[in-house]
Predict the structure of RagB/SusD domain-containing protein.
Amino acid sequence: MKRLIYKITLCIISSAIFTSCEDLDVENTNQPDLVQALASADDVKSLLDGSTTNAFTHLIGFTGIYMNLMADQTTTTNAYLSFWNFADQPRVQINNSSTNADLGSHVGSNWSSLNNYIYSANTVIDLIEFKGNTMIVDDVDKTQEMLATAYFVKGLCQGYISLLFDKAYIVNPDTDLAALEFKTYKELNDVAIQNLDTAISLAQSDSSISLKIHNAYTIDNATFIKLANSFAAKILINLPRTKAEASTTDYNKVLTYVNKGITEDFNPPTDGGYQFFNNMQDWSTYTLSDGAGYLPTDIKIASLFDETYPKDYPTDASVTPEPANSSDPRLDEYFEYVTAFGFLRESRGRELFTNYRHRRYFTNNDRGTDPGLSTDIFHTEELDYIKAEATLYASGAGAAKTILDNSVRFTKGGITTGGTPEEIEKALFYEYSIELDLGSTIGTQWMFMRRHDLLQTGTPLQFPVPGTELEITGDQLYTFGGESNGSQEGTADGSNSWNGN
């Protein structure tokens, strides 16, 4: 069994680099030797640059659709690639069976892709730290820069695996793959932060270190350090699965990272070649010929703008809610009221209907081919909200209110925030749902809602290890979600559900 696990794990984490893993039971005797595959420093840098680009692309990619459906940011009754399963009410379990044809679209993609990028980072760390190689590229010593980048990519991807899955592997260059065991998401999160700290330390020791995001965009040393600190803050605060668990977060540590974080939006432009673009936005803003959104805005958004608005769409087919009313100009700037229902089907639950689509970030149904469009990976507004939340629990509501009253909540939305803890939490929920809608990395709203117990009963709080991996390693198949499982670990109990469901 150990030898089989070794074969499978190595195949999963190296598939993007070396070979296809379609036949997991057949040993690949032709797999190229690492030294042959990476014959020069240029080859190593290409591997690392590609993994950096791909890691960021994944964090604004397709899988975010499923998390937005679970967070009621988006709604649908479209069963394509199991979309409807993640939006349906009452909530249903994630189908984690290895026979589920859509497993790779939601659970599997996050697992395999992020682990692949960790493997690439480990390859670079191994060549430099363990094998003592010096990386000279175009007559310039890139050794420290590549090492800092590798630790950043590794920490970033480990961090997101810890946010998404209940457990995972911790793999280092010297790890015995034959003895791999699953570690908890908390253990992985600790290691992720350590690796981000290493990247920060390396960058601080050499001001020439920069970070190449894609072929047309590189950030300088100071921005690299700020970005790594920002992601460390985000990965720390997003870890808890419940409000009770969130009470154990080290908010002062979060604030230490926040205070060294970005001062300008981290918004690398699209490359115009469908290689670096926000695919989550592309799908979510797609508008049908009747004016409806393909993945339309959930009614939750309208109900936050207008507290008199229904929280579930009326099931009476003769009733169509009027447009929401709000003094917040973002209602009409970011969203559009439409009477067409597009692909929404009454037979699959009219309570899932909506009259709104995403207007913000809409670019004529294509965000991939035009160079220079926004990718919206990390806005300063999000760091403001992280700071306000951490400050609320570390220093009190008064200081948190000051942060929010100096943020876009007031400057753009015209909203002054109340001064109680409950009002601060309500304001943060509002801003995460509206200002950060499609303007952050995958799962941002879902993670906020789970740590405040705002998700509907039965919503998965985390993803299971993919059934395809469990089947091969011989571990028991398991999953999360389902209304009847609301009292079980890993599934929302609905104790503070935003809509009472």
About this structure: The chain is about 45% helix and 5% strand.
